[in-house]
Every structure is written in C-alpha cells, then in structure tokens.
Amino acid sequence: MTSKQLSRLYWLERDIADSEARLNIMRTKAEPGASKISGIPSGGSDLRAGENVKIEIAEQSRQLDLMRARAERERASILRYICSVDDPQMRLIIKYRFLDFLPWHVVAWKLGGGNTGDGVRKRLTRFLAAECGAPE
Fold first, then answer.
1. Which of 36, 41, 49, 53 is the most buried (most CB within 10 A)?
2. Same domain for 132 and 101
3. pTM
4. How many domains is the chain built from?
C-alpha cells in the first residue's frame, strides 16, 4: 500500500465534514421563514424554490451517504493492511497517522523512545518503499 492510498481516508473524511457543513447550511436556509423578510409581498415562486431546495438537500444527503460508505470501505482496507504488517511499532505508526489522523510529532510522542516526527515519517516512508519495491 502506498502513502497516497493510506491518505485517501483523511481527505475523504475532510470532504465529508465539508459536505455535512454545507448540508446543515442548506437545511437552515430551507427552514420555514428563514429567508422571508417581513413587510415584502411574496412573488409566488416560494413553492417552486422550496421544492428545488428540498431536491438539492436530498441529493446532497445521498452523496454524503455514498461518501460515508466509501470512507468505511477505506477504513476497513487500512485496517486489513495494518493487520498484515509484521512490525508492531509500524502498525502503530500507520494506525496513529492514517486512522487517527495524528500529526507526525504526536505520533512520535505516542511511540515514545525519543522518536521525532521526522524520524517516524522517514521510517514509514522507507517501510512503504520497501513494501512496494520502489526507491525512497
């Protein structure tokens, strides 16, 4: 597995968080009376606009469900990969970085033993390169 493949879950989780925020904004704007200004007569197109917003919310919700399902598949794939790694410390490095999304310095701190963020990152890079048979 490559670092890029391992990182997909991180970016997918960020995309999910962004989509959830966007969906919450859409739902807030779609609430009755959210966009009405008192004293101004309605143009009559409120019903059609409301239906369009409902359709957009439903589509966004469907896309979000698909992204969540994909994230679960990615998480399961990373877990299978972690279980296949023989080195227990490397398993922790991969777990901390690619499932818990910890920064390198925190991964090093959690490992202890005087590790540094750069040292842990380089160790993982060398490990993945050896696994893939690619140069560093």
1. 53
2. yes
3. 0.77
4. 2
Helix (H) or strand (E) holding 106: helix 104-111
- What pLDDT sits at residue 105? 97
Closest C-alpha to 13, from 57, 68, 66, 59: 68
Cα 2 from chain centroid (whole Å): 17
How far is the CA of 2 from the CAs of 23, 30, 44, 112, 113, in angstroms? 32, 43, 56, 25, 26
- What confidence category does residue 51 fall into, taking pLDDT thresholds of 50, 70 and 90? confident
Which amino acid type is present at position 88?
Answer: P
Domain ranges, residue 134: 86-136
Q: Do 81 and 98 touch, CB atoms closer than 8 A? A: no
